[in-house]
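Record type: monomer structure entry
Structure origin: computed from sequence
Chain ID: A
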Amino acid sequence: SLYSRYLSGADLRSVLLAALFGIPLPLCSCGVIPTAMSLRKEGASKGATTSFLIATPQTGVDSIFATYSILGLPFAILRPIAALVTSVFGGLLVNAADKDREKAPQTADTDCADGAVCARQEPAYTGFFDRMKGALRYGFVDMVQDIGKWLVIGLVVAGLITLFVPDDFFVRFADRPLLAYVVVLLIAIPMYVCATGSIPVAAALMLKGLSPGAALVFLMAGPASNMASILVIRRVMGQRTLWIYLLSLTVGAIVFGLGVDFLLPRELFTSLLSPTDACCHMGTPWWQWASTVVMGALLLYALVIAPLLHRRTPETAEAAAAENGTAPRRFVVEGMTCHHCCTHVEKALQNVPGVTHAEVNLERGEALVEGDATDDALMHAVSDIGYTLRRP
């Protein structure tokens, strides 16, 4: 496959290509896991997979533009550069530590072993309008659903920090930057926050005296990891890969933080956040008001209207299945945090031989499956992409 051709080698090229492939993708630290596991199955090396896991959640086209809007151009440039360097560093470490350098198992179209899960072949191409429809739905609905909630939460948290944290709270760390980095890392690594949702929080922390370097540490470590992704990486990739993953992320964040604080002028990163400058603006341009209205409408539709329009209770789904003469089985799905997760789990279930219909609900963490596929086959398919499926 294309992935095995370019990402299977235990060398710099495969690690670098995996990082470059992942940086623009708008995936969170949980949503990136099934995509990374798919790359691994298609032949990507452990180092390339690790590089993809580190680079992708740190930034994306959405967060780059949001970073530029809120924190300014220097942060918008630094975030993808930091993601590239730390991911390549981590991928090379994994390849160096993986002495056997075994290739990932290849998925085949035929000759599946008993009980194995074989993916059905999807059409190679679809119509132009179908592609455009899918792209527009993803860009204006699915992606807004994924990042919108966390962006709103980030804005609320930023507002609370601005109101209740004293203005000189982080000044005490001015002479001890490494201590500030460690505190930020201890908070950021286990916490779930997406690359976009972390931006207003970082801005609020900087207004309270946090150094730009420590803010960059938060912007790198927060989106790239959380407890759920840590547990999944440990289970799927192994404990050694997990430690290298965390080590490269931690060391990379500290190195870039020190570089920002000691090699670059502070004003380069704080000028856009200056309360004095904000007070001097005479008015808001019309295009900013228009953008605010459009963004508000997208958030309203994605977070409120769309879930109501597509709401389907388990009882409704089971009643519909009963009319078709089938008895759906209900499962609990653990580890889903966004619509990427939901889509991957649903596709994995639908691709199990014997499944006639599968429906996954993110809010309830449930899956309804129709067909004669065994429970073990269903659980195996979901486990392969990094999630847990079990009976309630």
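Annotation 1: The domain at 314-390 is CATH 3.30.70.100 (Alpha-Beta Plaits).
Annotation 2: DSSP finds 18 helices and four strands in the chain.
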